[in-house]
## 1
Amino acid sequence: MQLDPKTTIEQGKAILGIELGSTRIKAVLIDGENKPIAQGCHEWENQLADGLWTYSTEAIWYGLQDAYADLRANVRKDFDIEIEHLAAIGVSAMMHGYMPFGADGEILVPFRTWRNTNTGPAAARLSELFVYNIPLRWSISHLYQAILNGEEHVKDIDYLTTLAGYIHWKLTGRKVLGVGDASGMIPIDPSTGNYSAEMVGKFDSLIKDKAYPWTLTDILPEVLSAGQDAGKLTPEGARRLDVSGHLQPGAPFCPPEGDAGTGMVATNAVLQRTGNVSAGTSSFSMIVLEKDLSKPYEMIDMVTTPDGSLVAMVHCNNCTSDLNAWVSLFKEYQQLLGVPVDMNEVFGKLYENALSGDPDCGGLLSYNYYSGEPVTGLTEGRPLFVRSAADRFNLANFMRANLYASVAVLKIGNDILFNEEKVEVDRITGHGGLFKTKGVGQRILAAALNSPISVMETAGEGGAWGIALLASYLVNNDKGLSLAGFLNDRVFLGDAGSEIAPDPADVEGFNRYIETYRQGLAIEHAACEAKR
């Protein structure tokens, strides 16, 4: 019998999922049917300190506690009860980055996030050494760059993890990581479900002359797959999470995962020949492969699903930030006129109007590079809007160009998969802020990838729901199903969402746009050089 939300929480049968995203920390409670019943959130922003993007540990814990406090307040308001016991917990966060800790458990340098692009020399050397694409944002790139820089802290590293791994460690005492997030530290061997022994050996040999008191396996988290026990909430962890003291210890944890993995779960895209696109502050596509690619590509990262299947990932540092900034100008204009502002209406009107623009945006170009974009060879960025006097400059084309820009780099990477590697997919699902205005982001992405795009009603729940589902898989998988089987049978029940097929005119127009976009990258490079 399905319990009502209040009884579910009272009886300690609710499951908590927490995700630390780029701009928001979200906490979601789900019931035994995997449906959200309460949530809380905290808004935050990264900081540029000493030339590197970071979040302080103080900001991390304040944000986590505030998101949980907001969840707790909403539960009290809606159900007049306290959260005291939970059936399971999962933690997810932005993938990759660099969080090194000393033997005392304290961080040695500020958290270096996925957004940093200072690791070019390290990533290039490791890619050559491993004969495998090693992206700038991966933990191993950050570690080796710190070594190349001669940074003093490296000799003192006792533990190296990601943001999700850090939070999990402090709540459970376990130094573990889900295989999907671990695959963004150093490549995973799909046959073992663990770090590639060959690459670990090569790295240790590469730095042998440094005589550090550690080897790579000494400092990396233990790798776990979806469904494996990853520890329990400790008394100290309970106090860290819920400063009010009501939450009791003992809840089991699923392996901590990255936002890419939870996005796959939230869109039911963990089977081979399925994929998903997350489009928010950054964007990435995840295509679950039937076999390995024929060769390494600098634009494509090889990671895994939370249960260890090989995934081709195209990660773009920039997506909707510049688009949102332009829309905010229209908000200011309305305010100047004294017109009440409903941002959902502003976004909706502008997005829908964009569909009436020319398929190639009338020649207009937008580069949404708030930060560097490795896929197109930019180590730093300058947001630019570019046009010539002969271009068709109107509102529809202006907005369409900015929408195209949000997925342009994603298209460049995926063209390799679909056109060169002949990868086949049965279904691609979109989720994230770009798809909030119904049908618009879907149609733009369908044109970019020349593929049908589905959007599920539940996809808006996001990664916090995805990690809650992984926690549910840990404690509610009484039939011993695979992760894909559990998602199909217990969560989505065959729901594939609403699908939009690519319009041939849109596809042709986007292809013309992307040709001009590639040529115009020289302008972006020049802007970066000119404004130092």
Note: The chain has a mean pLDDT of 94.
## 2
Amino acid sequence: MQIQVLGPVQVCGNGRTLDVGPRQQRHVLAALAADVGRAVTTEMLMDRVWEQVPPGARRTLHAHITRIRRLLEGAAPAGTPPTVVRRSGGYVLDVDPDRIDVHRMRRLVGQARVARCGDVERAALLREAVELWRGDPLGGLTGSWAARTRERWRREYLDTVVAWAHTEVRFGDPGAVIATLRELTGEHPLVESLAAALMQALYAAGGPAEALEHYATVRRHLADELGVDPGPDLRAMHQAILRGELDPLRDPAAATRPGAGAPVIPRQLPADVPGFTGRAGHLAELDALLTRRSGAAQTAVVISAVSGTAGVGKTALAVHWAHLVAREFPDGQLYVNLRGFDPDRRMMAPVDAVRGFLDALGVPPGRVPAALDAQVALYRSLLADKRVLVVLDNARDAEQVRPLLPATPTALAVVTSRNQLTPLLAVDGARPLILDILSPAEARDLLTYRLGAQRIAAEPDVVRQIIAACARLPLALSIAAARAQQSSFPLATLAGELSEAGRQLDALDAGDPVSQVRAVFSWSVTALSPPAARLFRLLGLHPGPDIGTPAAASLAGHPVPETRRLLGELTRANLLAEPVPGRYTCHDLLRAYAAELGHSAESEHDRLGAIRRVLDHYTHTAHAADRLLHPTRDPIPVPLIPPATGASPADPTDHQQAMAWLSTEYPVLVAVVRYAAETGSDAHAWQLAWALNTFLDRRGQWHDQAAAWQGALHAAGRLPDPARAFARRRLAYADTQLGRHDAAHTHLQHALDLYTRAGDLSGQAFTHYNLGYLLQRQDRYDQALDHSQQALALHRAAGHRPGQGHALNSVGWCAAQLGDHAQALTACEQALVLFEEVGDGHGQASTLDSLGYAHHHLGHHAQAVDCFRRALSLLRDLGHRYNVADVLDRLGETHQAAGDPAAARTVWTEALDILTDLDHPDAEAVRVKLKDLDQVAVPATEPG
């Protein structure tokens, strides 16, 4: 099975070309294939496919992906079906990259570049790569993403052809490439590297006159189209051919060197990074700068500011890209390491960097002016109207960089820094490029290059552990690979060191400061102000995956405005990332380093105070939010105490604000519950689980609900009995939703014993209600009815009106399932009155759903539809996603029974979208109902 994108998008399998479907579906496949093995978010896919995303695009995209998955599974070899899998808020095309022509082309080119083989083998690899090209890439696809990608792949292809041509000439077979080069120079008459390759091949084949004629053609095109002369390399080649001195065995870009008196052309780039992997998207963004530089309206130098945390590979990316595009800058490439974060604080002064550039440009020492301004003026004069690439590596700030920027629009500057050089963006028009950690596939590729495919394939699970322990940070992965290269030990030995608590950073040490992760991180922290450095240390104590500004303020014990300023300093230093406004995170190795500093540099008193403040912040805010979501809920059984001094809990004022805060914070809150339980903050652990319960239930996030209550149950072992009973009851509910019925029953029996011994009637009633619900999920409605009736009697004895409503609704539901729909209506109508009196919206919605079900089975379709719609209105307001899907499912059955299949399809489709997003097992049953509708529907005529 092969996926082809270097031409029209198509799939070949089982000896034939398969129908990929309409243009939009081909576009989706291409958008996934471009990033094979990596998650492409749903939003990114929609942006790639549609210039303006239409309503319903998400549903359309899902349908396309479903059909693509079926197509690929049908085309795959038996036993190894490729697939499109849902992951990280998007989709991954999980196939061998070698089955996609563009990735196979890149693999062959990379293999030819680093292979230790002769020209025969290298030429064969490059020839195979060239032959994968089938015409215009992404043929027939439109839009800006397709255009950008097509142009990038075209440039890669031209570079590959040039490399192949040079290899064939050196091998002694120039005739093998002349026809291809003639065709391409006709299509791309302004690409000087192609012209040089053709001139070299013609000369080597005994045709110097043809080579000179082609030079004249290229010169004419450049003058007519761009108003410029050929670059110095092409001019020098022309002169060498005239003199009969051209060496056809040398690289065209270096075939000749300027003679005496010619301007010096600097080639200062460091060596390219061996086995550079990944970063396709970032390379494409840098490629786009070339187009911007050559734009007709461009009047200023183009600048790219590449920023990212320590060890993320900024220099590697900049140098690798600079080598890829060096031919675009025939007047030279300048490079300097500005040492902005040197451990000895030996940051290079701009005056020293400019002097170095002047020396590289051939200025004699006696002609270098004394003053910096004069040196900068001379430097910029020498670069005027020249096509020069300037790489300013490891800059500290914009002030260090500005004197080194060229002033000509023909030049391009790439600046790398650990800091976000915001002033360069604001004042100098720089284009930001923020570098993050590698994708899992890119990290694996790096290790494969360093350690060999055989060693990686031998321990795949261990390799994943190493990648995770290194946080997908290129520096850490390189150090880990270097250590593995020096021994024949199994990779599991290294993985064990990396996973050992407290030793992760010790294991990532190759022997000197530059190859020691801890030391490299320390250079960034040393550059911080003392308050920002303290906040960084305290953030290492925070248990969640990210943190908001108010929580960080509580952690530090500072006011929010001051904390916001410090977080900004950490973000500009790339010690934190701000993926969404007001929320901050960092990768695991930086978090481990911050925690290490927190424990070594902060006193125990200060650490405990910071942890207490942030736990109070989360607990009090979550409790306030829950009261807005469920105002009729009984008071919390483990009362809160006032927050510590310096803690600043948020104060949501309405249902919408409460839902927004919980939606943002719940992954952190679940982690905080676990942390609090493990560290002995028992009351916080229990109170947070209680405060999260309503939200997690309404969102259908029962795995998180179970995790929270598991932590709370652990903490409740040191709290009074009612806390343990409540925790077991709520954990049983989550287990019931997850299908873990035996565990749920065990928890409920323990809870019932505790409530009975305590004489707590309401607790016993709610436990019987939960037992009834568990039995309903097992289709044991006669026993469920008995527990529901016991719950009703106990709630009446305790005078608990909301509890009576829930028990009456459960009695009615069980009666309906047992076929007594009249009794169901009676019990549920009583429940609805109770819920309306106490203002319990969720109870009303649940009861209306039961009434709708009973009316449906009595044939009262209009009444059933009305009940279901009223229930949906309440549930949507409450944000109870799973219950919305559940009611939509039953509403669809009523529509179908009433003879309205179109309405049934609409509501079932919405239900399926919700259940699919929740990854809920009920989705399959709804999918079957929709499929059955398709089978009985009259086929529609396909347009066009």
Note: The chain has five domains: 2-98, 174-262, 280-435, 440-517, 655-936.
